[in-house]
Amino acid sequence: QLQLVESGGGLVQPxxxxxxxxxxxxxxxxxxxxAWFRQAPGKEREGVSCSHSVDGDxxxxxxxxxxxxxxxxNAKNTVYLQMxxxxxxxxxxxxxxxxxxxxxxxxxxYHYWGQGTQxxxxx
Length: 123
What we know:
The protein has about 120 residues and is mainly β.
């Protein structure tokens, strides 16, 4: 059974950093495109970053460009989101998602989702 398990969320002060992890269980992550999304209370789910499985392309939302970085460790079957210079508006539940063909920052492109991990940026 295909499963995604996120971890690494927590409470951090503005300007701080966190690294989120998404472990893939039951399938090879390197065969799938992967992405991170987030959802704040009362808001729609938005794409944060995505990573293409074949050409290594990565894309970022304008709001996180230059602050966040997506990466993969195929040996650990895990995708990461390094988040630096965090702002209060980065607060939300962060989800990882994968798709065999779909790609980009639109959640409709992805078939499989993790359960989410809470990130709170506050002083």
